[in-house]
Structures are given as structure tokens and as C-alpha cells.
Specification:
It is a single chain. With 476 residues, the chain is α+β, with helices and mostly antiparallel strands. It folds into two domains: 12-147, no CATH class; 156-474, no CATH class. The chain contains eleven helices and 21 strands. It has helices spanning 12-23, 37-47, 69-74, 81-104, 108-114, 117-136, 138-147, 156-161, 164-184, 222-232, 433-436, and strands spanning 57-58, 66-67, 194-199, 211-212, 218-219, 235-239, 247-252, 258-261, 266-276, 279-293, 304-315, 321-327, 335-338, 345-346, 360-363, 373-376, 383-387, 395-402, 409-411, 414-416, 473-474. Strands 3, 6, 7, 8, 9, 10, 11, 12, 13, 15, 16, 17 and 18 form a 13-stranded mixed β-sheet that branches. A two-stranded antiparallel sheet has the order 1-2. A hairpin with a 2-residue loop joins strand 9 (266-276) and strand 10. The longest helix is centred in the first third of the chain and has 24 residues, at 81-104. The radius of gyration is 23 Å and the shape is globular. The chain starts with 11 loop residues before the first helix and ends with a strand.
């Protein structure tokens, strides 16, 4: 899949210029209703330059549309008019979502101006006109499909300058060694040293069968989704060595600085989709946060601000789990876990092809019907084990919130995103980036936004790539 050029990151100078343009009134010289849509969206872009959100990619040359990796994969398969119409609708929905977040993170006066009924009607009219034109013009539609393709989160120039082909065997060797050590480690022994976390008590009903939309994606209504998230919400056991081993949430303080609230014990949730053997599967993503990973020594490569875990559940048609996988919020240390009753199998033979990073694949004792318990180490917050044990020790409860909440956190000046305009969390850089930059990964070790998780130092892989699982698994 060929990637389109990535949007150039905005510098502070660009952001300041955009703000100046707005304050001097240049950005308010907008066309009246029914005139130049390109000028209208360009003005919106200038107005929101200081709060650009990197989760979705705008389609170059097509106003009011944004894409992600799932939509990029679906575009070439949209053949019927109904499929093309729904695909364009999803692109418009991504733009509306991202734009509302970007505008909501601006100064209140700017937000009010762009969220006014008149301005929103103009924007929507342009989106509708754009979609209708693409629906009626096959050649234009194919250009939109090409424009919707997503760049990966790798830097080709870094691999050239860093002599990546020479370092790749070393990366592979270190990864395999770490995975073998993890697989051979004994299961943790429960004790009072392990702090437990569990979802808030409730009695969720089993979700009914998911519907399938015109593009082939499984869909669940809000009630079904709530039931599925409750059903598969994992239990956690975290080894305790310091305050860094307590779950919580990133926040902004009264002076606008980022901080961490250990009283806000929350998991942030997101849905996704994956494709295997031509069939799409709904996925549930749970993200947990710790305040930091401690640095035992000043030169520690991996310590720094914020740490956590992303836990993903790939579902079958009845809402049972077919596969679990996890990464840290930096995109590192991906692991796969197959429930005991999953029909999926890891691809053979081993070792993996040279351009595919090896992955640890373990089959666990618990079935896909019950949420497992995740055992995390102290300090490093590594996922040590996954099983169906329920500890007799008291546990704390965590609340469930949308992952989108991190894109619009409360701030003394209104709302702000946890992420910068490249989808990274500023200030979470690790020293490991100076050793791993030849891999091409942008700032290895730094925390990042959904859609920006590069998961491989050997080859290229993205956590939200809908075809990622097909590289490692086969289904009957």
C-alpha cells in the first residue's frame, strides 16, 4: 500500500502566525454561504492551527474529509454506490469529530465563532457537495481513495542515515531474547504486594449479534458497546514498589501544566476493526495510565514521564474474544494471547520472515467468554502474565471513559489535548530514542496518540493497521 505524503508538522512559528492572522481578522474574511469551500476550510485550518489533532489524516485536495487506516483499507473495496456513499460518509464523520475537538480546544471566542449555526451549516454544505461530486464522478472517487491512504509512523531518511540494514539483525536478536525470557518466566504468586484493580461492579447483559454495514464492518449500537466493554474489561494486578505503580489519569493543573491524578482511576476506551481471511472483526481497546516509569539510574534508557498499557480484544460475531494483544503507549512490546477456545492459530513455520518482527504468542487457560486478569510488574509495568485468577485480596475499582477524552482535557483556558500536533505526548521522551532512531520510529519510547503507534523495530507495523493480525495468525 503506497503512503501519501504525511502532513507537515506545524512549528511554533507556524502556530504563532496562525494566531496572529486570526487576531488581525485575516482568518475571518470568509466566503459567504454557497461560495468557495476551499477558502472556507483553509480559513478553518488557519484558525485551528494551534490545536491540530493528528488522529486522522485530511485528504489532500478534498475538503471536509479525513481518513484513518481502516477507511484507507476499505476505500479500494467500495464498489457499489451504497458502499461508496457510506465510505464517504465515514470520511466526513472523521472530519466532523476531529474538527469539533480542534475548535473546542481553542480560545472561547474563536470556538464560538466557528461553532455558530451559520458557520457549521456552511461547513456541512461543503462536505455534502464534496461527497455528492465524488459519488457521481468515478475518476474523482478513485483519486479520493488514493488520497485516503495513510503514511506510516516511520522515517525513511533515519533508516538510511542510521544504517538500518546493518542494525536490523541486532534488533531482531534483542527482541527474540527478551520475548523468550518473558515466556519462560514463572507465573506471579499472588500476595498483598500486588494491588488489584477491577471494573466497577454491574450486571451487563450479553450483547446481541453485531450488525454488518455495507462496507462489511461489524457495528454495535451504544447499548451493545457498553455491554461488550463491560463484559471484557480486564482485571489488573500491579506489583507495588512506589507511587509510580498506581493507576490514574493525566490532567492539567490550575497553572496549565500537565500532572497526574491518582484519585482518577480510569480506563480509556476505543473501538477498532481488524481483517482476517477477508472477514472484519470488531475490536475493543482499553488504555491504562501510570504517572511515570521510574529511572533507577540517571542514564536509564526507558524511564520517563507517563507509562501505561493498551489492551486490545478482537471479537467474534457473538461478542466472544478471539484474540488479546497489548502494547505500551509508546507502541513497544507487543504481545499476543490466544484464549483457550479460540479457533485462531499462529502462522507457521517459524522463524518469521526477515521483514516481519517476531512476536510472542501464548495460548492461555481462560476462554474468550470471561475477562482475564493482567499481571503487571512494578516500575517497568511489563505484562508478565494473563490468566483467569481472581485474587482474594481487596481490589480498587476503575471507571471507564472514552479515549477521546484525552484529546480534550479540562484546562484553565478551556480545553487542551494531551497530544501535540504530531500525536506525541510532549515531555515523555526516553533516552532509548538515541539508540533506536535508526529504526525509523519517531521518538522511540515516547507516549503517543491512537493511530501513531509504530510497533516494530524490524520491518514496519502499525497497531491500528487492520491487516496486521493476518501477518501472524490464520483462521479456519
Amino acid at each position: 500500500m503506497h503512503a501519501m505524503p504525511k502532513r507537515m508538522p506545524k512549528t511554533r512559528t507556524t502556530a504563532s502566525l496562525a494566531a496572529a492572522l486570526w487576531l488581525t481578522g485575516c482568518a475571518q474574511q470568509l466566503p459567504s454561504t454557497g461560495t468557495d469551500c476551499a477558502a472556507l476550510f483553509a480559513a478553518r485550518e488557519v484558525a485551528s492551527a494551534t490545536s491540530h489533532d493528528a488522529q486522522y489524516q485530511p485528504l489532500n485536495g478534498f475538503v471536509g474529509l479525513r481518513s484513518d487506516r481502516v477507511l484507507a483499507a476499505l476505500g479500494p473495496t467500495a464498489h457499489s454506490r451504497a458502499q461508496r456513499s457510506l465510505w464517504l460518509q465515514r470520511l466526513a464523520e472523521r472530519d466532523i469529530e476531529a474538527s469539533n475537538i480542534e475548535l473546542g480546544n481553542l480560545a472561547p471566542a474563536v470556538t464560538r465563532h466557528w461553532r455558530s449555526a451559520a458557520r457549521q451549516e456552511q461547513l456541512q454544505s461543503c462536505r455534502d457537495s464534496q461527497r455528492q461530486q465524488l459519488l457521481e464522478q468515478p475518476d474523482d472517487f478513485q483519486r479520493a481513495v488514493a488520497a485516503a491512504q495513510q503514511p506510516d509512523a516511520y522515517r525513511g531518511w533515519a533508516r538510511v542515515l542510521g544504517l538500518y540494514p546493518l542494525l536490523k539483525p541486532l534488533y531482531r536478536q534483542l527482541i527474540v531474547r527478551a520475548q523468550l525470557a518473558s515466556e519462560q518466566a514463572p507465573a506471579p504468586r499472588d500476595s498483598a504486594r500486588w494491588l488489584g484493580y477491577q471494573p466497577l461492579p454491574g450486571a451487563p447483559t450479553l450483547a446481541s449479534r453485531q450488525s454488518i454495514d455495507a462496507l462489511g464492518l461489524p457495528q454495535a449500537d451504544p447499548q451493545q458497546l457498553a455491554a461488550l466493554f463491560a463484559r471484557h474489561a480486564p482485571w489488573l494486578k500491579v506489583e507495588q514498589a512506589s507511587r509510580a505503580d498506581r493507576l490514574g489519569s493525566p490532567v492539567f493543573t490550575a497553572n496549565g501544566q500537565r500532572d497526574f491524578d491518582r484519585q482518577a482511576t480510569q480506563v480509556f476506551e476505543q473501538i477498532g476493526w481488524s481483517r482476517l481471511n477477508g472477514r472484519w472483526h470488531l475490536q475493543l481497546i482499553y488504555q491504562f495510565w501510570f504517572s511515570h516509569r521510574p529511572k533507577p539510574r540517571p542514564w536509564d534508557l526507558y524511564g520517563g514521564e507517563l507509562d501505561g498499557l493498551l489492551w486490545r480484544v478482537t471479537l467474534d460475531e457473538q461478542g466472544g474474544a478471539l484474540l488479546y494483544d497489548s502494547i505500551h503507549p509508546c507502541g513497544c512490546w507487543q504481545n499476543f494471547f490466544l484464549p483457550a477456545d479460540s479457533p485462531w492459530q499462529a502462522r507457521e513455520p517459524m522463524p518469521q520472515p526477515s521483514e516481519l518482527e517476531p512476536r510472542s504468542v501464548r495460548r492461555i487457560d481462560s476462554t474468550g467468554d470471561q475477562a482475564p486478569t493482567l499481571w503487571l510488574s512494578a516500575g517497568e509495568h511489563s505484562l508478565l502474565s494473563v490468566d483467569d485468577r481472581r485474587s482474594p485480596y481487596p481490589a480498587m475499582s476503575y471507571q471507564q471513559r472514552p479515549l477521546n477524552a484525552l484529546r480534550q482535557l479540562a484546562h484553565p483556558q478551556g480545553r487542551r489535548s494531551l497530544y501535540d500536533d504530531e500525536g506525541l505526548v510532549s515531555g515523555t521522551e526516553r533516552l532509548e530514542r538515541w539508540l533506536l532512531w535508526p529504526s525509523g520510529v519517531v521518538s522511540p519510547g515516547a507516549m503517543r496518540q491512537w493511530g501513531q503507534h509504530a510497533t516494530a523495530f524490524v520491518g514496519r507495523a502499525q497497531f491500528d493497521d487492520p491487516d496486521l493480525l493476518e501477518r501472524y495468525f490464520v483462521a479456519p
